[in-house]
Structures are given as C-alpha cells and as structure tokens.
C-alpha cells in the first residue's frame, strides 16, 4: 500500500489508515490514537465466540501453516481444465 508504490508510507501513516478504518466501523472513537502499543489492546468484533464449539470440534487452537493443504485444499480440476 499504496497501489503502485508499496511500503512507501511511514509507520504513523499506516496506523492512521488502520485507525480510520476502525473508527468508520465503530471500533474506535473519533478521538482515539493508534500506535504500536495501543493497537494490541483492541478487540475486534467477532473475536469472542458466540456459541459453544460443536461436538467433536478440536479443543486446542488450530495453526494453519502457509502453503499447507489446510490453507488451500487441493481441488481436482473439472473436465477440460
């Protein structure tokens, strides 16, 4: 970000963009400041489960390794592909 010039913003600019998006979605008040310390205290909506896990669901947090079949399962191509 930004398109055509990746990684060209300062850290403060990135925090400002994230703060704006969080504000527009009702997560932060309009007078909040965001930095490397304060961002760790934000809890996003949906972070807390709203129902107990289904029977047979894993009890431990699952880790998905990038590039694993869990991250992108193999799909058999259809005819003519």
Structure, explained:
With 81 residues, the protein is an all-alpha fold. 17% of the residues lie in helices and 0% in strands. The chain has one helix and no strands. It has one helix at residues 11-24. The chain starts with 10 loop residues before the first helix and ends in a 57-residue tail after the last helix. The model has no long low-confidence stretch (mean pLDDT 81).
Give a short synopsis of this structure:
With about 80 residues, the protein is mainly alpha-helical.
- SSE succession: H
Residues in helix, %: 10-25%
**What is the β-strand count?**
0
Poorly predicted runs are none
> Helical stretch count?
1
Cα-atom radius of gyration? 19 Å
Report the biggest beta sheet as strand number plus sense, adding barrel if it closes.
none
Q: Can you give the mean pLDDT?
A: 81
Percent in strands:
under 5%
Alpha-beta classification: mainly alpha
């Amino acid at each position: 970000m930004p398109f055509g010039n990746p990684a060209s913003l300062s850290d403060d600019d990135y925090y400002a963009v994230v703060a704006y998006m969080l504000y527009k979605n009702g997560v932060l008040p309009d007078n909040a400041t965001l930095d490397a310390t304060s961002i760790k205290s934000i809890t996003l909506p949906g972070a807390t489960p709203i129902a107990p896990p289904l029977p047979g669901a894993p009890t431990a947090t699952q880790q998905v390794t990038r590039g694993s079949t869990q991250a992108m399962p193999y799909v058999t191509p259809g005819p003519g592909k």
